[in-house]
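Field reference: sequence -> structure
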Amino acid sequence: AGMGSAPNASASADVDHPVTQGLVQVISVFIDTLLICSSTAMMLLVSGVQGESGVLDGIPYVQAAIQANVGSWGIHFITFSIFAFAFSSLIGNYYYAESNILFIKDNKLLLNVFRATCCAAVFLGAQADFGLVWNIADITMGAMAIVNIIAIFLLGGIAMKALKDYEIQRKNGKRPVFKGENIGVKDTMWK
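Structure field:
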């Protein structure tokens, strides 16, 4: 969590001012990272179940920990939760990627090649060794984090100007509406 996929969700929102969605996304990152991930970690730590690399790790470790705390129905709850999370992540990330491809170049051949590549990646990922899949995921998430850190440094000043513009409009009792010229930015999607 927190490595850079949240901007994809924010970019698909329809808002009058980008700061509005940015503030909503802050809450989302808080819920994902601090509440859900930290709750899971605390449950593992206090469960009394001893994890062991290669034997009891990953989802089986979470299932054993929740079973120790709430009984056997917890295993089924975690199984369903992970299935729902994995399925929604596949659909959501596919949507983000396809939207990005269409934004860059609206080409039917390119889109079909992308779709075939996605199907192959999902199939191969489901067949591959658990450790290999996690290693690939770590590498790609690290690359995404690097790109996003660079973007933050390059766009940080503009983001701060947008926040100040938003705060001024709110302070004046207005519903914030973004106009690029207010912060010295041209050619934005907001008109």
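Note: The CA atoms of residues 95 and 186 lie 28 Å apart.
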